[in-house]
Amino acid sequence: MLPPTIPTSFAPRPTATPRRSGSSYTNIFNVFAYAIFFAVILLSVGVFFYNRILATTKVNEDAALAKAEQGIDPSTAQAFVQLSNRLTYGEKLLTSHVAFTGFFSALASLLPSTVRLTALHLSIDDTGAVKVQGSGDAKDFNSLASASESLSKDSQFKDVIFSGMSVSPKDGTVSFSLSASLDPKFIAFSATTPLPATPSSAAVASSSSAAATSTPSGQITP
Known about the structure:
Elements: H1 23-70, H2 74-96, H3 101-110, E1 115-124, E2 130-138, H4 141-153, E3 157-167, E4 174-182
Antiparallel strand pairs: 1-2, 2-4, 3-4
């Protein structure tokens, strides 16, 4: 019989390997999952109470609106609606309205006393361009040159052209034709449109001999 210290087999015994514990990873995951769970619960509770607050606020505001509507006089409300419509329509009319008051005042101050207009035609086309055509008499060529220089220096008058000049054999006066363009802002209506100045009799002919017309798209405000 062999003593107990002598091995009964020559086959080596397997060595025991240390086992890694996964308890730490499991604990961290559990804590994270519980945190998310409680956050979702808190968020759900918050949404529920916020929804209740909004519902209560809506009910209160609807009641206040109904009470305010009951206190409104229908005739007063209709009067305000009509006033609003009239103001809107008036604003549209003023926006599309044109006034030649400033033009006539500037023309009277720019033309020399020795130059007069016997006919004048103003028109506005569909694009809003303002055209001026007219005819008149000047005492001599120097007066006509002075009128041309005055109109050309004014930025509100553009493309000023004097043409068709002829000298009268009786008194030496010079007849001419005038064509020019106006800055649209010059004839735009506004609350600050100046009142018409008293025109010089030498600058503008009498109403029986001078004519001012406009196309259907424009109006003339004296």
